[in-house]
Amino acid sequence: MNNIPVTAFGAKALEAALLKLKDVSRPRIIEDIKVSRAHGDLKENAEYHAAKEEQSFIEGRIKEIELKLSRMQIIDVTKLSQNGRCVFGTTITLMNSADNSEITYQIVGEDEADISLDKISCHSPIASALMGNEEGDKVIVKAPKGDIVYKILSVKYYI
């Protein structure tokens, strides 16, 4: 099995999600099942079936997170050699050569990726094009509407 790269922040978020599922969601759903059982005939008890379905989802999510945590490779970007190279965890400011617009992304693991927070998956086309390049380099990103040329303006090593 391959290790799953994750930032220190991402690892803490997964651990917090697991703790919430185990300490809050699981006990709540157990109580919901107990209450719905008291309502009588289980065959026609919609509350009971909904609670059992939610319990199944919660248990599946717990197993999924536990597996990810066991395979995680935490990468602390602040401890990497700060040589201006684009690597996992770095925050990169780019300039689009077509219109001189700037955008900043952090390269993170798949579970951490959230474009609304400018966090892109290390497996995304743009991150793949950036990896290994340095400040000042031009990179070509293959996009559905055609190639996009970016210039790497800065590479930052912070959380």
TrEMBL record:
Keywords: DNA-binding, Elongation factor, Protein biosynthesis, Transcription, Transcription regulation. GO terms for biological process: DNA-templated transcription elongation; regulation of DNA-templated transcription elongation. It comes from the Bacteria. SUPFAM superfamilies: FKBP-like, GreA transcript cleavage protein, N-terminal domain. The keyword Protein biosynthesis applies. InterPro entries: GreA/GreB_C_sf (IPR036953), Tscrpt_elong_fac_GreA (IPR006359), Tscrpt_elong_fac_GreA/B (IPR028624), Tscrpt_elong_fac_GreA/B_C (IPR001437), Tscrpt_elong_fac_GreA/B_fam (IPR023459), Tscrpt_elong_fac_GreA/B_N (IPR022691), Tscrpt_elong_fac_GreA/B_N_sf (IPR036805). Residues 82-157 form the Transcription elongation factor GreA/GreB C-terminal domain. It holds the Pfam family GreA_GreB_N. Residues 4-74 form the Transcription elongation factor GreA/GreB N-terminal domain. Gene3D superfamilies: Transcription elongation factor, GreA/GreB, C-terminal domain, Transcription elongation factor, GreA/GreB, N-terminal domain. Necessary for efficient RNA polymerase transcription elongation past template-encoded arresting sites. The arresting sites in DNA have the property of trapping a certain fraction of elongating RNA polymerases that pass through, resulting in locked ternary complexes. Cleavage of the nascent transcript by cleavage factors such as GreA or GreB allows the resumption of elongation from the new 3'terminus. GreA releases sequences of 2 to 3 nucleotides. Belongs to the GreA/GreB family. PANTHER family: TRANSCRIPTION ELONGATION FACTOR GREA. This is Transcription elongation factor GreA. It comes from Candidatus Vesicomyosocius endoextente.
